[in-house]
Design a protein that fits this description.
This protein has 4 helices and 11 strands, in the order H-E-E-H-E-E-E-H-E-E-H-E-E-E-E.
Length: 246
């Protein structure tokens, strides 16, 4: 084959492949059209998303002390609690809970005159925790920063990351189910019109799991997610709806 014939051959092959592709697309479209035209129902999945801001922050802190006697440990823990409550007052926190005191004996192993080892109580460790519930994230952030100063004041204080909760999730989910169903109907109408059909009525609807995720996070879970780590969240609702056609 000469060099002049080669471009012509390539052009013919390209044209052939394009024709085959268009033919297959037409066949697939026709089959879809026929299925819609012949079917009496159509099932479509719809979704709805809403960005929300947490309206409740839960913050936990704990403190403990050790002493040789139980009475000394109780006095030291009482002083630490007073310092913790002072910090809460300074930050205008009034809604908090203080746990009961947890008592742990401290032991050491020693040998007696008969060379048998036994445990001896050498002191006590007492601990308490505090839980704060507040609708103001900035106030909790300030409280968390200020708690670092406890170390300088001789208080062994530890905290965990705050939990951010959206308390209106229940009401929001009801609204979003309606929005997801409307989205499913809009999708069904777009599909049905391709087959020359019209959506008649909703026959059934099945609710999927709700996903409460950090905003802009694309992770999902089969059994649903309920994020408490982020202030800004996205709630996603999914509904699978079945419509009759006419």
């Amino acid at each position: 084959m000469n060099n002049g014939a080669r471009p012509q051959t390539l052009g013919l092959l390209a044209g052939l492949f394009l024709s085959v592709g268009l033919m297959l697309s037409a066949v697939m479209f026709t089959r879809t059209w026929l299925k819609i035209a012949e079917s009496q129902t159509i099932s479509v999945t719809g979704s709805a998303r809403k960005n929300v801001r947490s309206d409740l922050v839960v913050w936990h802190g704990g403190f403990s002390t050790e002493a040789n006697t139980l009475l000394s440990a109780q006095r030291a823990l009482k002083d630490d609690l007073a310092k913790v409550e002072e910090l809460l007052r300074v930050n205008d926190v009034t809604n908090y809970l203080v746990s009961t005191i947890s008592i742990q004996e401290l032991h050491a192993v020693e040998k007696g005159q008969n060379e048998f080892a036994h445990q001896k109580t050498i002191g006590f460790r007492l601990s308490q925790s505090v839980e704060v519930r507040c609708p103001d994230p900035e106030r909790i952030a300030r409280l968390d920063r200020d708690s670092v100063t406890f170390v300088e004041r001789g208080v062994l204080f530890t905290t965990v990351a705050p939990q951010y909760i959206y308390t209106k999730a229940g009401e929001t989910k009801v609204e979003m189910l309606a929005e997801a169903t409307s989205d499913a109907r809009a999708r069904a109408e777009q599909i049905a019109v391709q087959g020359g059909r019209v959506i008649d009525r909703l026959r059934s609807a099945r609710m999927g799991v709700f996903q409460v995720t950090p905003m802009y996070d694309i992770r999902t879970s089969w059994d649903g997610m309920n994020d408490t780590s982020s202030l800004e969240k996205t709630i996603t609702a999914v509904v699978t709806a079945n419509f009759s056609l006419k």
